[in-house]
Each structure stands twice: as C-alpha cells, then as structure tokens.
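The passage that follows is intended for readers who have already worked through the single-chain material. We present the inputs for a multi-component assembly, then the predicted structure in tokenized form, and finally a short commentary. You are encouraged to pause after the input and sketch how you expect the pieces to fit together before reading on.
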Amino acid sequence: MSHILLRHRDIPDLHKFNVYKKNGGFSALKKAVTKMQPSQVTDEVKNSGLRGRGGAGFPTGMKWSFIDKNKWPHYVVANADESEPGTFKDRELMEMNPFQFLEGLAIASYAVGANVAYVYLRGEFWDIAEAMDKQIAEMEEAGFLGDKLFGTDYSLRIYTHLGAGAYICGEETALLESLEGKRGQPRTRPPFPAVAGLFGKPTVINNVETFANVPMILANGADWYKSIGTADAAGVKIYSLSGRVRKPGNYELPFGSTFRQLIYEHGMGVQDGRPVKALMPAGASSSLIPVNDKVLDTPLDYASVRGMGADLGSASVIVLDDTVDLNWVISKTVKFFKHESCGKCTPCREGTYWMNNIVKRMGHSNGSYKEDTDLLLNVAKQMQGKCLCALGDFSTMAVVTSIERFPKDFNRA
Amino acid sequence: MTKQVNVTINGKPIAVPENYTVVEAAKLAGIDIPVFCHHPKLEPVGMCRMCLVEVGQPMVDPKTKEVVMENGAPKIAMRPKLETACTNRVFEGMVVQTQTEKATVGQKSTVEFLLTSHPLDCPVCDKGGECPLQNLTMAHGPGKSRFIYDEKLKMDKQVPLGELIYLDRERCIQCARCIRFQDEVAGEPVLAFDERGRTTQIVSLSDPGFDSIFSGNTTDICPVGALTTADFRFGARPWELSAESSICTQCPVGCNTTLNTRREAKAGGEIVVKRVMPRQNEEVNEIWLCDKGRFAYHYAESKERLTKPMIRKDGKLSRASWDAATKLAAEKFTKNKKDFVVLASGRLSNEDLFNLKSLADTAGGKAILYSDMGGGDVTKLVGVGAGTNLSKMGAGDAIVVVASDLYEEAPIWWLRVKQAAQRGATLIVANARETKLDKFAKHVIRYTHGNEVKTINDLGKKGKVADEFAKAKNAIIFYGSDGLGVNGTSALASACGSLLKETGHVGRANNGLIGVWQRANDQGAFEMGFEPVDDLAKALKGKVVYIAGADPVGDNPNFAKVLKDSKFVAVQDLLETATTEIADAVFPAQAFTEREGTFTSGERRVQRFYAAVPVKGESKPDFAITSMIAKQMGVILEGSSVRVVFDLLSNSVDAFSDLNYDKLAETKEQFPIVGRSDMYYGGTTYENTKGLGVQLLPMAQVGGTVRIPKVRKEAAIHPKEKEILAVPVNKLYDYGITVSSAELLEQRIGETKISMNSSTAKKLGMDAGKTAKISFNGVSGEALIKIDDSISAGVVLVPRSMGLAIHEPVVGKVK
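Having made your guess, compare it with the prediction:
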C-alpha cells in the first residue's frame, strides 16, 4: 500500500515544489478555496473522522467548528514544537513532504476564515524553518499563498516562528504565549483557544501531522478516509518506533494495526531476540504497559490503548525489553520533566524536583529503597489531578505505572 | 447592578454577583478558601493550586435540556478533578465543597509541596507573625515534613531588586503577585520571572533596579517573606508593633495609613515609627500606598526637631519659657495690628488653620496660604461631589488632567486615573510637555506655555474631543501647577470650573474639579479662608509675620532679606529651618504622628489622623500654640481639645457644618475584605477601623449659587533673544524637608536637573548631562542639563524644591 502522509517514500524529491505540484499538489487547496464554502470544508473533515494527531485525539472538524464566529480575526497555528521524547514524525513530514503540510494548513485556514497562520517550530528546527520560509515563498510566487488566492477574495499569509527550547511550548496555550513573545507558560482554561487564543482572538491549533492529512481527505473524500483505520480512529497514523527494536523509525500504518505488527513486521523485532517487557506508547509521558501476547495483538487505536491503562498520545512507541531496569527508566523520565517543568504551578514545580531527588537517592542506594519507593509513589499521586496543565500529570505516569505494574523492578514483590 | 446567581458553598446558599470567582463568593459567605497567588485586585492565574475545591453543577438531560431533579432538588454532578476556586467563576446552581476529604487533601498537598523548597527561616523572617504561608500551614498543612532538609535548593537570600526592596529567593513561592501588581495595577512592568522549574526566580528588568514608585506595595501582597523593604527589614517583629491610624501628609490624595510603632533601643528607648502601612479606604487609596508615602516619614524623628520655645536675645536665639515666648509674640502682634500677617501652609491640620485664621481675623491681620497654587475658591464651589470614587469611573466617563504631572505630584491619583482609562474612561491629558500619563490617554493635547486657559476654553467649544467631554456621563478635571504659579493656576481653575459648570459636570458624585495641590491640606486651608498671594515678598515686606508650617527662606533665599527687614517674625515648625534661624520667636510644633487632627484631601474628603507616638520635648500642636498666643492677646481660642476646635470649626465653616469627630470615624464594610486575621487574601494592608472620612458637599451640590470667578487676563511673557522662559515643574522626590530626611530616598531624589529640548540646548551650546548655570529673578544656581524634546523651544523646566527657587514662569538665562 502506498503512503498517505509519508508519500515522499513513494515519490522521490517530493519536497521540491514542482514535484509536489506535478503529483496533484495544491489541487485540494484550489478546490477548497474556489469550489467550497468554508463550512463545507469543515464538514468534510468532520465526516472523515480525522482526530488530532498531537496526542489528545480530539476530532479535528469539531475543533474547527468551535471557533468563535462573533470575534475576529481568526488565527490558525500549526504546532510544530514536536518535543516529546521518542516522537520524530513531524520532523520527517516537514523535511520530506513539507508542501502537503503547508497545503493542509492553508485549507484549515480557509475553513475557519483565518488570513494569517503561524507555524510554531521548536528552536532546534531552525533548518526546517529556513527551508519552510523558502517553501512559503515558492507558494506565494505561484499564487497558492498571499493575496486573493485563485482570484477569490480569500487571502492568506503563513509565517514560521521558532521557539527557544522548552518542552512546555508544545502545550498549546504555552505555545500561544511564546508565539506572542511572552514567557512560555500555560494559561488557565477556560477560555479555550477557540474563543480566546492567539492575541486573545479565536484560534485553531493543530499538530503538523493532522494538517498533513487534510489535503488527502479533500482530494479523495471523507468516505475514502473513513474506510481506512477503525471505527474509533479513522485513517492512518505515523508511529515513531524506538527503544530496543532492531529497526527504529517512523511507520505509517492504518489505525487498527497491532503492536505486534509494528514491532515485529516493521521494526524487525527486538534486539538480540529478547522478549518485550514493557511498552511506552506515548513517549516519556506514557504509562507503561506490561506486555503479553494479548497486548501485542491489541490494535493501536485510542480506545484500545486506553483499555490497557495507557494513552496512545502522539504514538511514539518506546519498546523496553527484559534487560531494561524500570527504576533506571523513571530516573530518566523524572529528570526530564524536572528539567522541563515551567515552574508556574506548585505541584509540578516542586513535585518534579522532589521526585528527582528521590529517584537519585534510589539510584545510589544499592536496592534498599523501600521507603523511598513508597514516598515516590505517594508524591507522584499527590501531584496527579492538581496541576495547571498536563505536564505535571505526564511526569507521574511512568513513575506510578512502573512501580504499580512492575513491582519486581522495585524490590516490592 | 450586576446579575446575581445562586450558589451553594459547603451547604450554605448565597446569592453573589455573576462575575465573582468562587474564592470571592466564599469570602462573602464567610468561608475562607486558602489562597497564595490569588489577589482580589489582580487577574486570576490559578498558579499556586492552594485553593483546590470540589465543584459541581446541576445535571442537564442532554435530550430535554432540562435540569434533572432528585428528591425535589437539582441532581448535582460533581466534577471528577479538583478545581481552582480562584479561576472558576460562579454560575447558577453551582455547588462548591471546600472541606471534603478530597479538597482538604488537595490543599494539604499544595502546602507540603510549597514547604519542600521553603527555607523555614521564620525565626529571622520579617514576615513571621503576619505571614500567609505560616498561617495557612498551621491551618491546612501537614505537621511533619517528608522532604529531606539537606536536599533543599540553596538560593540567594539578599538580592536587592532596587535600593528599596530586597528579595529572598529561597522564601519566594513563585506566586507572581509582585510581577502582576507591577503589570496590572502599577502599570510599571519592571519585574519578571527568569529561568524555569524549581529555579524560577523574580528579577528586576529595569535600570535602576525596581524602577517604580509603587514598589512597596509588593511587600504587602507578597504572601511570604520574599520581598521586604530596605526600610523595615530586620527592624522588628510584627507582634512587637503597635498600630495607629493616620493620614499620609505627602500629597493631596490623603492616603489612609497605619503607623506601626515600637520602643526602640537604637532611638534611646523612645517609641518610634517603624513603618508606614496602607490602611484600606476603597474610595481614596484602596489598599495601596506610593513609595514616598511609605518611606518618607523619618522627618518627624529628625535630630533637627525643635523641642523648646526660643526668642532672640542680643541677636541670638535662646531658650525661653512658653509664657515668655508667646507673650513676646502677642505683644508684637497686638502692637502692629495693621501689619499683622499669618503665613501658613497646607502641612497644618484643619484645626490648626482654623485657629490661625481666627486669630488673624480677630487681630485684624491677613491670612496667607504658603503655596504657588491658587483656585481653592473654585474647588469650594465645584469640587467633586460627595460620593466620588475614581474606581467607579470607566467607559462613558471622562477625566481631564491639565497642567499636572500626576505621577510626580499625586501618585495614587495617577494610578487610579490610569486604571479608569484602562476600564474605558476617556482620558484627556493636556500639558505643555510629555508626562507619564500620556500613554494611557485617549487624547493628548499639547499646548505652549501660557495657553492653559485657552486649551480648556477650547474644550468648551465644538470639536471631537470637546463633544466627547461634553457628552460624558461623568467628568472630572484635575488641574495642577505644572508650569504655573499662583496667577496661572487661579485663572486655570476658573476656566476649568466654567467648563464643568457649562457641561453640567458639577454637583454630582464623580463630577467636578480637583486641585492637585502642593501639600496635603491646601484644600483645608482654602476651606478655612486662607488664600495664596501672587507676590509674597511684597505681602511680607515690613510686616509682623507669624509663620506656621512653612520655610520660605529655605525655599527661596531671597526671603531672608525680606523677613530680616520685617518688624517681627514668629515661626512655629517641626524642624530647625532657614526661616527659624532668622526668626525673633520660635515655637516647637508637634508632628502629625504625635497628635490628633484632620486633613481635607484634594477630593475634599475630611479625614482624621491619630496620635501614634509620644510628643517630642516641649512641643505643642499648632492649634494650641496659636491659642496660647491668642490668650496673651486677650482672644480666647480653644487650645486643649482638638475635637472641640473641630466642633467650633464646623459651627463657623458652612461646608463642615454637619461634621464631627464621631462621623469622621465611621466605617463600613469594604470589598475586598482585608484584615489582620486573613492577610493571605488581601495582604498586610490594615483594615480600616478608625474612619473612612466624609466628603464635603461642594456649593454646586448643596444647591447654592455657583459664581465662578472671572479669569483674570495676564500679560504673556516674551523672553528676549538670549533669554529663556524658566517654568516650574513638580518632582515626587525633592529636597523638601518631609522627603530629604529619608536617607533611603537619596538616590531617587538625585541631582537637580533642568530640562529643555535639543534645539534649545543646541542654541545655548549645552549638552545633556553637562552642568549649566541658570539664573532668574535674582536666583542663580547650577544644574545638570536633561534633554526632553516634548518641551517647546526656548523653555527650560526647573523643578520646584530642588535648590532653585522658582514659583512661577519667569524669564531667565542659562549659561
């Protein structure tokens, strides 16, 4: 089966403007702007069953329809801050198939009536930003961006913006703060961005991968897209596979593919042929899933992964085999979140710092850390459900699930 | 009135305005929800997570859209997660639980988290004893720490954000109240967070550090001991302090204050003022105080205080008894009835001025107000109506500020006018130069010096701005002495009064004229019948002069000669001054901290102040000194009870006719609710228990005849070639005796600077930062050159009370 998103793997030089155009590029944008009402575009995306690929899996069309139509102007922002450890799909998309993403962003902007869209890239993506500025210029030159697209009254400008190196700026409200030139810290919600987003105006924020789906949906129709994947999750997903697998990388699979297919068919199995011990389906923010045959045969969609006590998130699957000590794993995740906590709310700022102290102690204690494990579990649970944004809860996921689901790794069984 | 909604908090039903947050609604219901980052005067941010509560709402049937009922009451769906009470607004049918196990565990968790990084140095912390973190730990925190003390993060503990405010980075709990206060309330966003996570810390972005005139307020609202003032830090423990209510004497706003006092070894065992704190009066200063009011109180404890009466013998001042000194003065006053002049300033209380005026009247003398600003006759007629509250002004209202630099002259008015503009009031700033208020103004009118009256008259004609002013629901005009002297301000007051009268903006709350006076009680002096004169030297020449609360010689050395040539000079004051030096009789007066009295603010609010510290030496209150002199002249004036003086005053001054000390001491419930018991909510601002004061009714509100005095035409001043027009401007921190004795403020006072635009500087061959010699009217001195291109060509701004005696616009030379 040919790719829908990673089409550059089928078509050489797809990152070049002419190649992309020759392969049907921008026809979806033209169709939307010249032949469809904005609401029709939104409806088409709604009907396709497309869900946000940033992690939360919120229905995309519905998000677009929530935008406050009594307040103008509207903005669309692409979240290209891809910073979850283990996630590297947006990078490949933007490097290798950038026009499909930009076309999707332009279609979304048309659908919600935005005349300005921003691509917020993590600071380390400076080379992507440089290339993207040229790609945007090429689109403007060809009349696919700029004033009065295709002779209509619709105008659109896209700007790139580089972050300054903070994980938290992938959180949509912190991203907006950063984009406004402020300190990247999350806002309290409500109000939601659809009502008061960028510069206080109604704003749609979607992940890069989400936008990349849109041209294909418009080109081939909602029904075509819905026919791929499962009832819970339509279409394809790019899984970023990493950890103890033989062939890590991005794999575009229809929703409903199983962990076994991903790890053994595409990832060529585990290094040294060892058994999988645990899976982290959503990067460092994941809950850990103890692995057995039933788990390996579970389809990789939102509902099924939730059924195993975890979240699919951005589908960055980290494979841990039986050589991996989970005590060591959580020392890494906790240190990461301690470093990335923005400091705005108390439980996250203090809790990640405290947890990091405890895991450091545990690492130096030659296994006699029962009291510290109890304390760690207690502190992590004490943080849960009390933080301002999701980062605080994320920092506790690996901790709580490792200790509770893998007691042996903590001398508790 | 805002729509009310019905909510139930801990089972208690209460109706609250719909824009209230859960924290505020609970406060109204008498239920305290603990908070750190929330402050009722700041936008909610939900950062500290202390106010976690359970929130529920009536279940709605998704099909019928009707509320599901259960046992005759709406069925409540509690939300799965705890919510922050500070960011959730109330809605109809909301149910809040603040004390369930889930909620209390949440609150306890937050306290434990906060304490993991807190140094727990309460025994040496200034905040100890009035600390929200201490109090809320006692109420909601765990009894024991599970965090290993040695693992606490070490951070800098003595970081001067500026010279007035110190930061202890270990104590800071990152609530951002200080940052948000500076952004949202003060409009001086000079603080920010640096770094992130656990190392997040407050930094000052300005140079000089913490460059704000409202910085002290951040120490009041800081919920821990992270921010302390250089003035008070390590000075005393809060529980050792006594508190007495007072009124700030630094400007005409009349901020309500509380003086904290303590017996002090360093002061030789005397009881001294340790700090000045704001006292809530939502119609005057809310819960704020400017840095001048907070830090410039030391003059009352100056070593230069006069403590004994003195008379001149053989050319030298020497100690005398009260009887001998007052007798001497009385004899001179009686003998020269025709030439008797009383010169007093608005530093004195209403009662002092009343007795002084009574003495002048009975002795056939003249009562002169020591001030460069006139127009009090107009504010008596069309001053702001009773009930005026700048906090209530917003969209649809208009505020004009003309010939006044409110930021320098009356900081709290500046702050509240700025906030009214931010709420949508049309702010019109008219001045000959740029001031800090300009950037908040909807309309900035730039006139050339001498055109103040014309500018106001033009606002009465047709035009966009004029129409907006005329149509405003409510309108207030602030006028001041920026660039003007007695004549100019008197004329301007008349013009403003006429404009207000013609547009119907008089005789009602939030309408009328406010004088931005040079001293706290100038308005009171006008009420008592004092008036300034255009040519003070002429008025004093060859007279018998009784000076109270003024230092004309110190302000202008030219007066030394004038007074030396006069027949007799009696001076009563707090401190030794250049004027007491040449006096024939000197009487030591008591400071406002040592006695009772009342002041009348620029908004014509009469407010009481109380005695906080014991009297110094043999000093007496001014009204009593006057009474003693009067007695020796055979005139009976009340001299023992200030309350009785006020009663007599209210009998003879119409505007005060219904007032007495009890009325002035009345209070009512104010919002936000602040007080010593729950300082975590509003900060360490004191609750007002001793009087909100009473606003006088202007003539226009009483219904009497309002006849605005005609504007006297003045000849324009035309400097010749090689001359400049020197105009006076006012500076917040100056060499005035009430400021200069505060050592902390030295850096803020700075050097004397005169300002001009670059073309004038070029023409004069001057550079910015260079020293120049300026001379006018027999005065000359040196000053640094400052360039400000908003000033008209040929004009040089000279600050008042900075060593160059300037009272009004005058022709001069700069070399």
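Commentary: Chain B has 27 helices and 37 strands. Residues 337 and 716 of chain B are 37 Å apart (CA to CA). How closely did your sketch match?
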